[in-house]
Model the fold of this input.
Amino acid sequence: MIRFKKLLQGVLFFILLFFAPHFAGAKKSFCFRLYLNNKGISPYKITEPEKFLSPAAIERRFLREISIDESDFPISEKLIDEIKNLDFAPVTQSKWLKTLVIETSDSSKIDEIKGFTYIDSVKCVWNGEGRTDTYPCNEDTSRFVSQNIKLELEYGYADNQIRMLNGIALHERGFNGKNMRIAVIDAGFMNVNRIDAFSGISLLGVRNMTFPNHSFYCEDEHGTKVLSCMAANLPGIMTGTAPQAEYLLIKSEDTRGEFPVEEDFWVAAVEFADSVGIDVISSSLGYYKFDNIPAYYSHADIDGKTALTSKAAEIASQKGILLVSSAGNEGNSGWGKITFPADAENILTVGSITIDKQKSSFSSVGLTADFRIKPDIVALGSNCCVISSAGQIQTINGTSFSAPIVAGLAACLWQGFPLLKNTEIIQLIRKSSSQYQRPDVQLGYGIPDFMKACNLANK
Done:
């Protein structure tokens, strides 16, 4: 016992000796969210939207009768420069919610700007390692070749999860997502650039909201699996729900911890997706608690109007975007309820069921605090088919995957009826669902039938 103890002490000594330079060099960082009462004097004009929105964003607003207003203007650069001159580093911002996140290594410096007339309040949203202490990784561009056994079924291992929603019939009608733009907001997209199933994907671009200069494809495979539910295109192995859509991949998570600043990155991701003309957003991220911050949100906040992400989700809907959100996997936890932004009113919130069409035990439930039905609908989320970052078929659990299954089919439905508004598409999907007349807190309106929704749209 004594010899073991001495050996352990020796091992610990060498570990500390090896990592001491790293510990000594680690810098502390604080990020603060500034709530602004105005965005400063803007150089932009509503009559010149091409100066702050992409042609695709302008076209989407015109097609769906969405007005362009001052909420589309960025925060004034002059205002941001004034704060930068006090040695604060801008991290991210929200033009819709009028917030600006800044970073400093000295938390006491925030007192210098609390009295500025355009700042209503300040909240600390990150307390950890400095954002300059990043962890770059080398991206390997060699290809993964699928080792999965090919099935006779055209949709391969994903057949059940698409057939359950009558999505195959929708595809046979010719609606497979062509010309629809889908943004996937997630934690990371490891190896998407190396996997055969994505080799033919129509990629609009990628964006890292957390560390803009970081390597994109080498951290966290959650988004890779989410993307496969929609974009995979390997007949006989896996075909996704919108294989012909165009995709924008956005990373919004800082995987070093759970802090409120990730809400800010998520909001920035949604705003970016809007500015480049995205039609549908698939988000499998949810928030309700954070590291070392007790009781950040309560059940009373599940009203679609309190959480930062929920407010942004609602604005995204007003801009004409169809936002599909996972309900959350808190069904077995003390929280139990849907997470944010799943409580936003005019989005499509998706829970999870089993292959036997029973609620998955982990799937978060409603109602909202203001007594609205959430989740809206459900899809297969227990033992559903995804593709891992190694390019292999995997079965997995989570509303993280039932949501993109629905998002892809929602895009296909909208492809067939492009003049409909996002809220009209959501209502069609609800009306097509198995318990539309008797919704409940577990399954919402039930299991959607996308071919039925298509027929309803034709009436």
In short: Residues 1-25 have pLDDT under 50 and may be disordered. The radius of gyration is 23 Å.
